[in-house]
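Quick review question:
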């Protein structure tokens, strides 16, 4: 399965969805002036084109396979779990740095400022 066209997508000429990236294998993709970008899809009513663009851009960075298999909530949940893990690791590193700094303050206080 090939990769989808990279984001961002946008509404182009009325009835179209376009990108700044060429879409290989898509007839009309290179008619940038006509469509207002590289054609992704046409014959789409305005409301649907806006919805498609909003959804695709909101899912930027999420795997299509993950979205298909588990839905948006699961994909975002995985991202949140990774961010929480990174937060916890950074917090632990910060606590170590605070302990080291506190130890230096104690040593300096006990030695009269000479380390």
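Suggested answer, residue by residue:
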């Amino acid at each position: 399965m090939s990769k989808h066209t990279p984001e961002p997508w946008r509404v182009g000429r009325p009835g179209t969805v376009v990108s700044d990236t060429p879409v290989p294998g898509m007839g009309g993709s290179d008619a940038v002036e006509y469509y207002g970008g590289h054609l992704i899809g046409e014959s789409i009513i305005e409301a649907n084109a806006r919805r498609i663009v909003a959804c695709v851009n909101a899912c930027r960075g999420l795997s299509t396979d993950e979205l298909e298999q588990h839905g948006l909530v699961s994909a975002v949940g995985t991202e949140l779990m990774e961010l929480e893990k990174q937060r916890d690791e950074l917090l632990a590193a910060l606590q170590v740095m605070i302990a080291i700094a506190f130890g230096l303050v104690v040593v300096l206080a006990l030695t009269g400022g000479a380390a």
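Why it works: The beta strands are 9-11, 16-19, 38-42. The first helix runs from residue 32 to 35.
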